[in-house]
Amino acid sequence: MSAILDLQGVTKTYGTRIKTQVLHGIDLTVSRGDFLAITGQSGSGKTTLLNIMGLLDRPTTGNLLVNGTDTAGMDDEAITALRGRTLGFVFQFHHLLPALTILENVMMPMMADKGRETPGMRDAATELLKRVGLGERLKYKPDEVSGGQRQRAAIARALAMRPAVILADEPTGNLDTNSSAEVFTLLREINKADGTAFCIVTHDAAIAKTCDRIVSITDGRLI
Amino acid sequence: MPFSVFIAFKYLLDEKRQTLFIMSACAIGVAVMVFLYGLISGLQRSLVDRTLGSQAHIILNANKEKPRPLAEADTDTAVMARVERGFDRPQMITDWPRRIEAVASSSGIVAAAPRLTGAALLRRGDVTRPVGVSGIEPESFTTIIPLAKSIVAGRYDLVGDEIFVGKDLADDLGVTVGDRVALQTRGGAVNFLISGVFDLGNRSVNENQVFVSLRQAQALLDAPGDINQIDTRVDEIFGAEKIARRLEKESGIETISWMEQNSQLLIALRSQSSSSYLIQFFVMVAVALGIASVLVVSVVQKRAEIGIMRAFGTKRSVVTRIFLIQGAVVGLLGSTVGCVFGTWLAMFFRNSAKNPDGTPRFPISYELSEYVVFILIATLVGIIAAALPARQAARIDPAQVVH
Ligand SMILES: Nc1ncnc2c1ncn2[C@@H]1O[C@H](COP(=O)(O)OP(=O)(O)OP(=O)(O)O)[C@@H](O)[C@H]1O
Ligand SMILES: [Mg+2]
Q: Which side of chain B, N or C, has fewer Cβ within a 10 Å radius?
């Protein structure tokens, strides 16, 4: 199976004056259907790694191939388009746009891609929201629903462009145990049904155990 | 609707109070601009109208022939010459009907009329006043200077020995329509019958000018068949000076425009205009700073949201546009309200400053095209004001702001 994301000897060094090397030669591939947990202590470089995998940040050295194509030579506009179409994100905080309704939030990535609302978008977003159990909350603003619902809306948004990979940085970090479990079940369902690959950063060992693969990061190295 | 417009409107509507705040700033700024513009241009129009009410736009005057050196300097020859002014021998415009026709058909000129001017003593009983005598053809003259409209007593007609005197002169001498006065020159005295009293809105003219028919003036001033002045009216008053220079070259007669005659007034008008532009400019700078600072804060508040939009495939250029559009919308809507408010202010001011007869002291009126210009300027100011925040927003790096 060909890799969607292929990290080859990725390093990341922050800072220009005081240099901090956060990642040391990471090799990692993510393929269709993967359900991957990334664990590690605070400050070990999980978010940094996820940002690079998510094309939000560039490696200092090493390569990132997306569907076999090296991203090093791409300009910002190409990277943005590739990111929008290939990757979805769920963060610890939902980061829904408060000015938009739940439905509009889910349509946002589609509109950003096409530059405007096109026919079918509304229905597609509605479908996604029904799937995460928010079919009744389409017209609500993010601050009018519960924390768990917000995070599920954020998951629907991550699914909007039918991405090959969803990167989730502590997606349940802000949720209570119940909501947390619900959200995880949802991610797992999506993974099984659509073959969407997931890379999930988590501190929860129990949750990590349910994943197909676990990579642990210590001082910027995978073990 | 483009995505950028969609988000821009969502932001403006979401932060209603903030939007209202910067739109009001813009509206007030534009209202000041509209008000000031209306006031200054109304004032200037009334000043110019008043000046031109008793003056021809351009005068071709044979008497004021410029002294010329006998030899002209050119590139090879320098001429040292003292130019002597000749003695004041009255000069006449010869072959004037043909010349008037030529002047009248010259481009930019809408009308031309003959005039013979001279000096005389006006006598009524044993009181005399020195006056300027103008011989005119009433029909053609009133197309240059609205004398017909300025007749306050009597009628606008000069038949035989009839004469028009100014209101102030008439008051001074205690004469009115139907009275007789005499005009005395070196050649003797001639009696005239007052057929009209005029008020050209200019005291010096009302006091010192009398009008008789051209034929009577020619007899009185001993210039049979001649005139010494052609008065003209132009289509664009502020183009008068340029036309005057051209006419002078074409006709060889000394030509003077109202602009040259009123250069002090024009300097005053010009500096008034530039100070009003300066005020308007700084008002708009203040408005721009207001809009910019609110948008800068808004960008800072929305860092994470912008980061999210970027993460989900929104291009930098679209982020830039989201904020430029907000600036433009604020400028557009704010200035529209400002135009209404400014006009209302100006009208209120106009109606509170009235002449004794109840007419407004100065005319204030606006053209649609002027509003369009104000709205365009304000919209542009809004966009410029949004440029810095928009740049800031586009620079946001999603990896730094989203966790
Ligand atoms: N923008 C940055 N500039 C400099 N150093 C940074 C920057 N971002 C992260 N770091 C450093 O890189 C290291 C790894 O950070 P990272 O956020 O990847 O850790 P993490 O594993 O996600 O931690 P946590 O579990 O607390 O979220 C930390 O030591 C952090 O101080
Ligand atoms: Mg982290």
A: N
